[in-house]
Amino acid sequence: MNQHEPFPTPLLAVLTLFLALATFMQVLDTTIANVSIPTIAGDLGVTPTQGTWVITAFAVSNAIAMPLTGWLAKRFGEVRLFVFSTGLFSLTSMLCGMAPNYQMLIFGRVLQGAVAAPMMPLSQSLLLSNYPKHKKGLALAFWSMTATLGPIAGPLLGGYITDNFDWPWIFYINVPIGLLSAFIVWEMLKDRETDVAKFPIDYIGLALLIVGVGSLQIMLDKGNELDWFSSPTIIILCIITVISISFFIVWELFNKHPVIDLSLFTSRNFTIGAISLSLGYTIFLGGGVVFPLWLQTELGYTAFWAGFASATVGIFAFLLSPLVGSNMHRLNLRVLITFSFILFGISYYWMANFTTEIDLFHASVPRLLMGAAMSMFFVPLTAIILSELDEAHTASAMGLVNFLRILGGGLGTSIAVTLWERWGHYHHAIISEQVTMFSHTAQTAVSSLHHAALPALPIIDQLITQQAMTRSNDDILLLSSYAFAGLIILIWMAKPPFMSHHAK
Description:
With 504 residues, the chain is mainly alpha-helical. It has helices at 9-28, 37-44, 48-51, 53-65, 69-76, 78-97, 102-116, 119-130, 136-164, 169-172, 174-189, 203-222, 232-254, 268-297, 303-311, 313-326, 333-351, 360-375, 378-386, 394-433, 440-451, 456-491. The protein folds into three domains: 1-200, MFS general substrate transporter like domains (Growth Hormone, Chain: A), CATH 1.20.1250.20; 202-258; 261-504, Growth Hormone, Chain: A (Up-down Bundle), CATH 1.20.1250.20.
């Protein structure tokens, strides 16, 4: 981007707000529909399993289009692409809300996911390009705050809208916000457009990317439902993914005008930072997705209260991110991220000791500590990722990093849900072996239930299941704690200085 005088602070605040709103909408829409699936499926006359394609369709098209951000930005300009994407996101949100049937809703979600993909990486790039050098860390912090709040607010807002209004409004709320954001950003940045160059389109690379990433995302989304590699569908998707992505990597490495700039991985800090961020997000989302499921299925929490227990992670993440961002230049980022991983590890270890007796308050407290860890996670890692790159590569880098983060989140979710169910069956079998006619505790429980005229065996089986799934949940959280400890070794492979280009 051509160099321009920084905006005065009031105008910079306005720009930050409307870039952040666009990011917030995009992140929000990846989660807002989750709690509304039963209602949407019922209204459109499909099964809840079919209804999950409302989530999958958005995720697949978003994942495919995300790494194309850098190529599209070079061809059309970052400002034009951001405004165009945000405007189309608003229009496709309206299309989703107006969908008369299931097929049209899925079509709308595919379009919405594809056009939304550039919004997140470009919001980062445009923020960094328009902040003065000494405040670039603060720009990253503001972006991190919105990216953190989206997944937290999504289930809460989706549940509230569905319960009190009608499900189309989870899409309609995007329309005025998106159009206003596109208008304000265009008015402020239309004279600050990046340089464009019209490269030939790499059709083969694009086709391999669509097939490979699409197959991978569907495999991750449907793997547990189809029992993974016992299903021919999953096996075929895995083969297609491996072949397509292998050919894609080889093709892109030797193509003069690749759709994804794999040369970014020649930067040591980009590679270490991207791997650390994607693996960290994989662990975070994997450990985090089982927690609210356990609260709902085993402890009887409603979707809203399970979301509320999880949402406390956003408090310190929101409050501390600006403080971290404005002081990064004074700190060794590897130390900061190490402290983040330690706090994550402590939080998950704490939660791994939960029992079925836990109440809402005590279930929420470790999530507060996790929020403090998050404030030192996204912002410093992004600074390390960009530290060896010039501003011309920011859009490409952030498009690729966000793509890896999305894939990591999908992988973490799939693995965690699968392990939770399978380890739950294992613990159920172990506990059941102890419930015999020779067990005094079991005989006492059966007698008490018979005296109360209650069916003994179904109730005992339900109690065993509750304890088994709780132990399984604890196992996953303990594994997450150890995994974060292991990531500390990786981050110390990054090489200072870290603030040379983007956050000085």
